[in-house]
Design a protein that fits this description.
Elements lengths: L1 H21 L1 H15 L7 H4 L3 H13 L9 E2 L4 E3 L2 E3 L4 E2 L3 H4 L44 H18 L1 E3 L28 E3 L3
Antiparallel strand pairs: 1-4, 2-3, 5-6
Length: 201
């Protein structure tokens, strides 16, 4: 649980920062919300996080577009079954392509656009009840690290965005950010994200 929750959380934190730097409107909006809640505190805690609805929408949208494990963890069919006309023999190893589900244009409007507002007045969550958003899987085999990963991710992002303004290094533009991923179970960025942190005035 510790390995799964920490490795995926670090990858998702980077993807969230990538998405925010590439979408300055969203970055400004989430920072304004966070800083209004934080006022003059040195560090935001779990109680503060509960008041930050737009940050939660940003995290959902990040997990929708950049889920840490695109094929989820494989499963084995316990018995023979038929799905959409396909016969699945017992003992078949099954992979769920959550990446494709979460970018399906039949389910999501403008699925390739990073748009956290889609979650603001929506009951869709990632706890395994809404099958259009399953970055942690679903059912009895849902990721046991989910509570730890989400709590950590919320605190990490909230405090990074609260404490600093983030910019691209000199002579680089947001279009220069490499979106290529490393191979592996967890989808890390191939080339490290390099940003300049500035203390807000």
């Amino acid at each position: 649980m510790l390995v799964a929750a920490t490795d995926t959380t670090s990858a998702t934190s980077v993807w969230a920062m990538v998405a925010l730097v590439k979408n300055p409107r969203v970055m400004r909006k989430v920072q304004e919300e966070i800083r209004n809640v934080g006022a003059k505190k040195d560090f935001l805690d779990e109680d503060d996080i509960q008041k930050i609805s737009y940050l939660k929408a940003v995290i959902k949208e990040t997990l929708r577009m950049h889920l840490p494990d695109p094929l989820l963890v494989q499963r084995e069919a316990r018995e023979k079954c038929t799905i959409s006309g396909y016969d699945i023999p017992a003992k078949t190893i099954l992979y769920v392509n959550a990446w494709a589900i979460q970018r399906d244009s039949n389910v999501w409007e403008n699925p390739e656009e990073f748009y956290p507002e889609r979650f603001l007045n929506s009951s869709i969550n990632f706890i395994g009840q809404d099958f259009e958003l399953i970055p942690f899987g679903a059912g009895r085999r849902i990721c046991p690290g989910l509570p730890m990963a989400v709590a950590s991710l919320e605190l990490i992002l909230a405090n990074l965005l609260y404490s600093f303004d983030w910019e691209m290094p000199q002579d680089l533009k947001k279009e220069d950010i490499d979106m290529e991923m490393l191979p592996g179970i967890t989808q890390h960025e191939k080339n490290p994200l390099c940003l300049v942190a500035k203390i807000p005035m």
